[in-house]
Amino acid sequence: MSLRISPLWWPFLAVASPVMVPFLLVRNRRFKKNILIADELNRQHIGQTRPFDLPVLDFLEMTVLVEEKAEEGFLGDAGVSCLFRSDRGSLLFDVGFGPERPALAHNAARLGITLDGIDALCISHLHPDHMGGMKASRVRRVTLPGEMGMPNEKPCFLPDTADAPGFSSELVDIPRLLTSGIATTGPLARSLFFFGLTEEQALFARLKGKGLVIFTGCGHPTIERIVQMVRRVSSEPIHAIGGGLHFPVTGGRGNRAGIQFQTILGTGKPAWKRINDDDLTGTIGEINKMNPSRVLLSGHDSCDHSLERMQQELHADTEVLKAGKTYRF
Ligand SMILES: [Zn+2]
Ligand SMILES: [Zn+2]
Question: Which end of the chain has fewer CB atoms within 10 angstroms, the N or the C?
């Protein structure tokens, strides 16, 4: 298990500790308060959700534009962007680091995907690796590379308040159908130590003869909570689970200056505790109980150790997503 903060930083941390320790204690107080708020929000949202009709899709496929792993000729990046296509239309889910890094523009161009060819955009949550970069997240503005063309007022479904210039923004507050026969869980909350109270939506759809397909962004609310919400809408068998499950157990992606930010910033634990193998064992057991036939793992927020364990221990046919590849559910 690698160190989350390089020893080169330790003398600095020692000097800064009179300031940092009180800062962390204040953060921890807010973190604990947010745990109670998130639990209450989820309890209300899940409790108030009633079943609704999910259209039965004849086919559903997903082309990965941005992922940690990539097919030859495509760029990998620690972000997420996937284009879903069904017999009822298309939906772009997340936009990675947008124009800040080359992956989205490069991969989209190589795949011949522009905004002209999509019906709508959905942003899972307002983190930099999903809504278009650090600046996009800081100013809460969904940002795409200009090379992808003009949005032309297509819908952009958001789980929290943000701008989406050129799109027609729609704040999603409850589970509902979006476009293309694909539904959203609506925002589910999680208290994250540094990012604060984070609301994230996941997608789900019903595929003819197979059952439900459930797809997450970062998976911050936990897959257990996401599936609990999906189950309020439909009792169909789960055919596939995909996307980020957030298990940076042995290290994070996109480390900078000797710091594994992902193991510290986006977890549902205090900064001084890490996500560990026991947490992963618990989730693997829960997914096996959900009994999906397929699991498509995102490598953008899980380390290779976690991906390997899931591939070995999940009963489902399990693979790691790659940018440039199309998956037919
Ligand atoms: Zn993420
Ligand atoms: Zn995130």
Answer: N
Report the separation in Å between the CA atom of 210 and the middle of ligand 2, taken as the mean of its atom positions. Answer: 29
Does the pLDDT of residue 69 top 70, yes or no?
yes
pLDDT class for 274, splitting at 50, 70, 90? Answer: confident
Please count the other Cβ atoms lying within 10 Å of the Cβ belonging to residue 47.
8
Ligand 2 centroid to residue 218 C-alpha, Å:
5
Q: Which residues contact 27 (CB under 8 A, 6 or more apart)?
A: 193, 194, 271
Burial label, 23 (beta-carbon count in 10 A; 0-12, 13-18, 19+)? exposed
Instruction: For residues 136 and 181, give the distance between their C-alpha atoms in angstroms, rounded to a whole number.
Output: 28
* pLDDT at site 318: 98
Return the ligand number nearest the Cα of 196.
2
With a CB cutoff of 8 Å and minimum separation 6, the contacts of 157 are 120, 121, 122, 123, 170, 172, 178, 184, 201
Q: In the predicted model, what is the mean pLDDT of residues 217-242? A: 97
Q: Which tokens sit at 275?
A: 């996500």
- What spacing in Å lies between the alpha carbon of 218 and ligand 1's midpoint? 4
- For residues 203 and 122, the answer to whether their CB atoms sit within 8 Å is yes
> Helix (H, G, I), strand (E, B), or coil: what is residue 106?
helix
Question: Is pLDDT at 153 greater than 90 in this prediction?
Answer: yes
What DSSP designation does 194 have?
Answer: T
Confidence band for 20, pLDDT divided at 50, 70 and 90: confident
Query: 58 alpha carbon to ligand 2 midpoint, in Å?
Result: 31
Question: Helix (H, G, I), strand (E, B), or coil: what is residue 244?
Answer: coil
Q: Where are the alpha helices (DSSP H) in 208-294?
A: 223-233, 261-265, 277-290
What pLDDT score does 13 carry? 73
In the reported structure, the alpha carbon of residue 130 is separated from the centroid of ligand 1 by a whole-number distance in angstroms of 6
Please report how many Cα atoms fall inside a 13 Å half-sphere around the Cα of residue 262, on the Cβ side. Answer: 25
Which ligand places an atom closest to the C-alpha of 126?
Answer: 2
